[in-house]
Amino acid sequence: MSPFLYNTLISAVSVFYVFAVVAVMDFLVKRNFVPQDISRKIVHIAAGSWLIFWLFFDDTHWSKYFNIAPALIWAILLLIKGFTADENDEAVKTMTRTGDRRELLKGPLYFTIIMCIMGTVYYKTFFAFTAMGILGWGDGLAPVFGKRFGKHKFKILSDKSIEGSVAFLIFGFIGALIFNLIFGVQIDYKLLLLITLFATLIEAISPKDLDNLLIPVGVGIAVILYI
Predict the structure, then answer these.
(1) Can you state the percent helix, strand and coil of the chain, rounding each to 5?
(2) How far is 43 from 18, CA to CA, in rounded Å?
(3) Contact between residue 70 and residue 20 where contact means Cβ atoms under 8 Å apart
């Protein structure tokens, strides 16, 4: 099989993976098996973990950049759905907080844009592994813990909790660590912790709906400062 066809096949599998997660979450939400806020975060984490498929791409051919296919397709769909979808649309149910389709044009759309940038400009780099680990797992799980266990609230530009920030730090570090280890990056644990801590501070002061953009920017700044 040629590298082009091979990379196209891996890309198709990654697209199926992302759409399957959304479909499963929609099924579970409709049957009240999973709360909407939990389904939203599962989609968030699963989408951020799409870079696992980078392991299988043939990097000798330019078609390796087909890896962004899931993000690119969803970016287009989010633009369409954000303007036209009704409240029963599966994306609205599984990817928004309030069921307002316009939310799709904010955090979820920004997330797909970041995925596209990481899958092209920063493909298979320490920055991409770290940023997506922190953004996917840290930012994915922090609201879950903050909402259920957050007793110590604070507000800078949006409502946060100390418990949520601690969860962001812990799971963001774990996510970044796992992705870097999977791709064989030699880990400087102190550096990774410092970067995650800096990203945690950025998330704590981020305005609502902008964290999906500001967290990767914060990770990028931290990488420049610490390396």
Answers:
(1) 75, 5, 20
(2) 8
(3) no
Placement of tokens 């969860």 in the chain? 167
Task: Enter the DSSP assignment of 88.
Answer: T
Cα–Cα–Cα angle for 45, 48, 53, rounded to 5 degrees:
120
Distance of alpha carbon 88 from its chain centroid, rounded? 24
Question: Is residue 9 predicted with pLDDT exceeding 90?
Answer: yes
Closest C-alpha to 140, from 210, 45, 24: 45
Collapsed DSSP state (helix, strand, coil) of residue 110 = helix
Across the chain, the runs of DSSP E, i.e. the strands, are 153-155, 159-161
How many angstroms separate the CA atoms of 125 and 133, rounded?
Answer: 12
Q: Where are the alpha helices (DSSP H) in 31-161?
A: 36-48, 69-84, 90-95, 107-120, 126-133, 139-149
How far, in Å, are 168, 184, 199 from residue 204 at the CA level?
9, 30, 9
pLDDT tens, position by position, 141-159 = 888 888 777 677 777 767 7
- Note the pLDDT tens digit of each residue in 82-96: 888 777 776 776 677
Instruction: Return the structure tokens found at 58.
Output: 């043939």
Query: Are β-strands 153-155 and 159-161 bridged in parallel, bridged antiparallel, or unpaired?
Result: antiparallel
